Amino acid sequence: MDECLIEKLYNEHRGDMLKLADRILRNRNDAEDVVQEVFLSLLSREKPPRKPKSYLMTGTKNRAIDVIRDRQKQERIAAGAARRLSEDEDEEVNPILDLSADEHLAWALEYCEDELSNDE
User: Fold this and answer.
1) Which ranges of 26-51 would DSSP assign to H, the alpha helix?
2) Which of 57, 64, 87, 98 has its CA 20 to 30 A from that of 114?
3) Which domain, by its residues, includes 32?
4) Do residues 115 and 20 make contact, with C-beta atoms less than 8 angstroms apart?
């Protein structure tokens, strides 16, 4: 795909993409990574998408949700390890460890639905 077109799209839409990813993830560094990954996916396409803004914003939303799911998986693994350690020490682990990522994911999905319905 034409690099001049990608640069133009980057300059036009990066700010909106970054805002969306940052609102979903609540982490600026992760949001910047998401935007970079979406533009890398655009580079791998042979032809530009028919609706570039929709492609970029939907890709940003989906990738940000993937990041949350990855966090959720990591938190569950950590909670399981903490639970095993506490069983060894006869201590009880706070179950909130399993909920924070779930709550974050639910919030992110609700937020994305609201944002996408406002764009239409």
Assistant:
1) 28-43
2) 98
3) 3-119
4) yes
pLDDT the model gives residue 97: 47
- What is the C-alpha to C-alpha distance for residues 32 and 48, in angstroms, rounded to an integer? 22
| Number of domains the chain is built from | 1
Q: What is the largest CA-CA distance in the chain?
A: 62
Write down the pTM of the prediction: 0.69
Residue 101: the pLDDT is: 67
Give the residues of the chain that fall short of pLDDT 70: 81-82, 84-102, 104, 107, 111, 115-116, 119-120
Q: 């970054």: which residue's tokens? A: 18
CA distances from 84 to 46, 78, 88 (A): 49, 10, 6
Closest CA to 34 of 7, 71, 1, 61: 61
Q: Which has the closest alpha carbon to 75: 89, 61, 96?
A: 96
Q: How far apart are CA 54 and CA 95, in angstroms?
A: 39
